[in-house]
Amino acid sequence: MANSSAPGTMRLEVFRYSPETTDGPHFQTYEVPYRKDWVVLDALNHIKDNTDGSLSFRWSCRMGVCGSCGMMVNGVPKLTCAAFLRDYYPDPIRVEPLANFPVLRDLVFQLDSFLDKLKSVQPWIVRKEEKPVSEGEYLQSPAQLARFKDFTMCINCMLCYAACPVVGLEPHFLGPAAIALAQRYNLDSRDQGRAQRQEVVASEDGIWQCTFVGECSAVCPKHVDPAGAIQQAKVASTLDWFREVLWPWGQKQ
Ligand code: FES
Q1: What is the domain range of residue 213?
Q2: From the CA of 77, how far away is ligand 1's center (Å)?
Q3: Between 35 and 242, where is the model more confident?
Q4: 48 with 151, same domain?
Q5: Over the stretch 135-180, which tens digit does the pLDDT of each residue have?
Q6: CB-CB neighbours of 5 under 10 Å
Q7: Same domain as 170, residue 147
C-alpha cells in the first residue's frame, strides 16, 4: 500500500466499478479530512457529498444495527459505521465491496443469493398447530431463552459470508448466518419446524460443507458465533442419524 497520508488528512483507495462504462473495476484515491471520531462510513459520505457524488454504497442507521454498511476495509469484512479512521491513521485505507458477492456498482453488491438462503431455512417460528389467542402467550423460561438468545443478535450484515473461505469456493453453501438463524429457531421452545429446516440445513449445501475455519465468528460484529451454531447443528444431525439407524422406533426430536 502507498505512503502515509498528508497531515490532517487521510487517503482512501476506493473500489470503483460502473457497468455502463468501459473502465472496468479499478481503485480511485480520495483525500478526506482526518477526524478521530469519524468512521469509514463518514469518510465515504464526505466523498459523496463534497468530491464525487457518483460513488455508490449502502448504509442506513450509522449505529451498527441495520447491517447494510458492510465492506472490506483493508481486506477485512467490517461494518464501516463501526470502523474508526483512528484505527488506521496515518496509513491509507482501502475500501472494497464485501468479498464473495457479485458487484453491481462500486461498493454495492447483489443480495439475492443471500436472501434466498435465508428464506430457505424458514427463519421464523413454525407451529404445527397454533393455539387459540384466548389461551394466551407461549410462555418461555429464562433458561429456554438463554439457549438461543445469542443467535438472535444477527443483523444479516453478511460479514460472515465475506470471511468464509467455503462460501468463496462453493457459492451454493448455505453459509454461516442462515445456519445460525436456523439454529436460533430450532432451539426455540415455541418452534416446531426443525424437521422442515433440516432438509435444507443437512443437505449437501448445508452444514457438512463447513470446515470450521471459524472466520465467520471472528468477524461477526454482534458476537453471534455462527461457527458454534454450525457445530451444534452438526451434533444434532449426527444424533438424528444414530436415532434413525440404531433406534428407528424412537422419536425423532
Ligand atoms: S449503517 Fe447500519 S450497521 Fe452500519
Answers
A1: 112-246
A2: 13
A3: 35
A4: no
A5: 999 999 999 999 999 999 999 999 999 999 999 999 999 999 999 9
A6: 20
A7: yes
What's the one-letter identity of residue 106? Answer: D
Q: Compute, in angstroms, the gap from residue 130 CA to the centroid of ligand 1.
A: 36
Q: Examine the domain organization and report whether 59 and 136 are in the same domain.
A: no
pLDDT of 175 reads 98
In 3D, which of 132, 128, 151, 134 has the Cα closest to residue 228?
Answer: 151
pLDDT digits (tens, 9 = 90+) for 36-80: 999 999 999 999 999 999 999 999 999 999 999 999 999 999 999
Reading the block at residue 155, the C-alpha cell is 443483523
How many Å lie between the centroid of ligand 1 and the Cα of residue 251? 44
Q: With respect to residue 1, please indicate whether it lies within any of the assigned structural domains.
A: no
Q: Does 251 score more than 80 pLDDT?
A: no
- Ligand 1 atom nearest 59 alpha carbon: 1
Candidates 79, 98, 220, 222: which one to mutate for ligand 1, based on the most atoms within 8 Å of Cβ?
A: 79
**Quick one: which atom of ligand 1 is closest to the CA of 81?**
4
When the pLDDT of each residue in the chain is averaged and rounded to a whole number, the result is 94
**Cβ(145)–Cβ(187) under 8 Å?**
no
Nearest protein CA to atom 1 of ligand 1, as residue: 62
Say if residue 150 is in the same domain as residue 44.
no
E-assigned strands of 80-218?
A: 93-97, 103-105, 108-109
Question: Based on the structure, what is the number of domains in the chain?
Answer: 2
pLDDT in tens, 224-236: 999 999 999 999 9
Does 97 lie in the same domain as 220? no
What is the residue whose three cell numbers read 444479516? 156
